[in-house]
Amino acid sequence: MPVNMNELDMISEALIKLDRMNVQEFNLKAAEYGFEKNKDLLSTFTFNQIEELTQAIIDHKSFTVDSYIYFFNGNSKYCNVLYKPEYNLLFITDKTDFELLKKVKSDFVTSISHELRTPLSVAKGNIQMLRDIQEDEKYVQNIKKVEKSISKIENIISQLTMLSMAELGLYSPKVDIFDPVKLYEEIYSDMEGKLNAKKIKVDFECTSPVMKEDRFIIYTILRNLMSNAIKYSYDNSKIEVHISDKNLAVRDFGIGIRKEELPRIFERFFRGVEAVKVAKGSGLGLAVVKHLCDLSGFKIKAESKWMVGSYFEVVLKD
Known about the structure:
- This protein is α+β, with helices and mostly antiparallel strands.
- It is 43% helix and 24% strand.
- It has 8 helices and 13 strands.
- The strands form 3 sheets. It has a 6-stranded antiparallel β-sheet. A 5-stranded mixed β-sheet has the order 8-10-11-13-12, covered by helices on one side.
- Strand 12 (299-305) and strand 13 (309-315) form a beta hairpin.
- Helix 3 (96-133) runs antiparallel to helix 4 (137-167), helix 4 (137-167) packs parallel to helix 8 and helix 6 (215-231) runs antiparallel to helix 8 (285-296).
- The longest helix is centred in the middle third of the chain and has 38 residues, at 96-133.
- The protein is elongated, with a radius of gyration of 27 Å.
- The protein starts with 13 loop residues before the first strand and ends with a strand.
- The model has no long low-confidence stretch (mean pLDDT 86).
């Protein structure tokens, strides 16, 4: 399909029609960046992945990247560079404002997190000191309640921070090599008190001696799923936890989720009508799980029957 560059002068993207590495035509936005007719493409701009772009044009293959672009006429911008070989078109989209906004959001999240944690840390220290010197059991119990509330606030701040970082794309998954059994044991140890309080048994199965995933992400996903399972399980029931190199899954035999509420469970702060009555919570756990799955390219499946139980599976590899 022929491209009429004159019709594209009003759009905000720079469009350049190429004949291999030579500029044939361009719109007004591209002219602002210094592109000229019959001029070599590489004499106008450069960026870190310029060699990959050049090779893609030579091989007539698609190419796209976000990078800082340095235009030789004096402009410097953060852009998306997209080459479409079927049309011999190069698209350059200015994303500088978006990148600046992302940084402002990141700084805001970091600042708010820090500003909230500082007074909480002071309060927590003072509460611990009061607990150590207080002998009256009546006051000790009240102090423990305050301490528990502070820990809950800290947990909410941590989850909101993680959720915001994931949404802004400020956390990039990495590949760690780790023992999934030890990871599970770490989570179990942290939750042993809650399990014992409700007399819940955990049936654990692991078929993979080693995992190659982002350990922090796997830990956070599994911990949140187990925490939810414990929270909504009946006393004297059980939880099933399965880990393999292809998936991880958590099943409980608790109150379950109503059919009409199931589509909303990954929404931030959403909690079912009965869930509010059964256990305390922020409604952030599953939202964090969903965003971390999206960030890592995992698929999460949820099945539930009201008053029977719930099953969550995270598919790591198809």
